[in-house]
Amino acid sequence: MISSLSRMVCTYNISTVLVKEQLWLTTYKVEGAWCGPASCKEEIPEGMFMCSELYLAAFEGRTQEVIGLLTGSYVAIEAARNGQAALHATRANANHPGECCSTSEVTGDRSTLLHIAASQNHCELITELARRDSTLLSSLNTTQETPLHCAARAGHADAVEAIFRLAKDNVEEDRLGGVTGNRNEPGDTALHLAARHGHGAVVETLMKLAPELALEVNVAGVSPLYLAVMSGSVHAVAAIVGYKDASAAGPSSQNALHAAVFQSSG
Ligand SMILES: [Zn+2]
Question: Where does the record place its ANK repeats (predicted)?
Fold first, then answer.
């Protein structure tokens, strides 16, 4: 239960109740009472745990409130909903009383503000965050996933497109691969995740922006095309097969044709 909650920021269909549980989890970890296996890989320094106000504002896409918490700006704070940002600095249980929040704050699984915004398809917030701190675009959580992975898994084509555009404008060319072609712990690119979940629009967007991702296989030797066929999404399959060099590799020497047979006989 706790382990699954620690990965929750990358899921898009999350209830308010579960959001509160995630916040509880973060607070609990601040107190040092529990440490999950993923988060124990490298201890998160005190003061870098994301404040609950900042998490909620990012999760719900309240861009002005997030900016208000990051800058302490009067105008931004005035614009913030319910005056929550103004109250933040004086709260007794704030992680860093009296100081502004920072883009380096992370959740229990080391997800950044941009991971959260990407998983929820908050494109305005994604843009503001990337312009203020472009290193967020290549930030990694404990499963080595970038914000692009989160957007792709959740099926948000708009967020995927925004991340590519912002990376092109704000990241040096030799570091672009760390944003657009990064692999997570099992070796999946963003295209693998979109294909596995049958997100046709995201697969189509990724194939338009970075078709070379269709050449990549993950640690298990599985290609995005194989996963797209297994997902049953005709849209996803059509977007990948249009690229003639796409790998069709699957596990145990199978290929996408085997996957098609499995699907048709299933
Ligand atoms: Zn904070």
Answer: 186-218
